[in-house]
Amino acid sequence: MDQQQLFVKMAVDGWNQQLKFTNDTLDKILDEELLNEISPGKNRGIYLLGHLVAVHDLMLPLLRFEEALYPELVQPFIKAPDKTVADLPPVSQLREQWNIVNDKLAAHINNLSPADWFTRHNSVSEEDFAKEPHRNRLNVLMGRTSHLANHRGQIVLLVPKSK
Amino acid sequence: MDQQQLFVKMAVDGWNQQLKFTNDTLDKILDEELLNEISPGKNRGIYLLGHLVAVHDLMLPLLRFEEALYPELVQPFIKAPDKTVADLPPVSQLREQWNIVNDKLAAHINNLSPADWFTRHNSVSEEDFAKEPHRNRLNVLMGRTSHLANHRGQIVLLVPKSK
């Protein structure tokens, strides 16, 4: 395994680990429990789940894999704060979209060659990328791993004590 | 910048970013507000701060930098759950230790050569490391970045609405 392969493995393993932790957490929370706030006056579980679906979905174009599958989730789950949008999709649908988008990402992630991980992501120009080579696709994955960990630490607050 | 320098920069930048986010969050919370639970029945801010100090302190030996500064924090903030230890250090002391331990880590982090980041961390043997080269010091830093993000997402719940 060369250095580049090794580093890609480290970053992809970190991503997969946070996804697994998050899925283990979501499996312990009922749909109706996701309607609760993580703490009084704070975001609800449904909002955080929808937010993660929307952010991961946008990784598809950002990583230059393919178009986003659910652009309609950007408004209610990224642009708008929680409890300001009247009609959110049901939790069951968000769970399904969560699995679909992560499976899509996984297929692309597992197919990308180590060298291609170090090419630019979609929101940096060729010109800027030449000067700032750290703005590559792998760096997006690492940033989104921290983003996921951040919100997983919040969603876990909804797991009932018995589990 | 060669490939190895680039990887190290990506991982160290990610670590520094999460530290900055966490410090910005802690700056908005008063010492007495850190005595509150992040959500009813859950960990208190003081416990999460002490936990982060203790975990970061253990990175000093784990990364083969130097001995831990505050081994006495392991029992109350890692081994014991919150609200089971009667006498915790005051928040003001934990904040001071938090800054000291992160400054110590930063000095070592900034001094370590890119090649040395890809050597083994302290809890893997030379023999196992030969077979599993991803168990290196940089991987510890990446894992602790997610750990920090996870708990930062919880501590942020204590920031008063006005800030």
Automatic annotation (TrEMBL), chains A, B:
InterPro entries: DinB-like (IPR024775), DinB/YfiT-like (IPR034660). Residues 30-155 form the DinB-like domain. SUPFAM superfamilies: DinB/YfiT-like putative metalloenzymes. Pfam families: DinB_2. It comes from the Bacteria. This is DinB family protein.
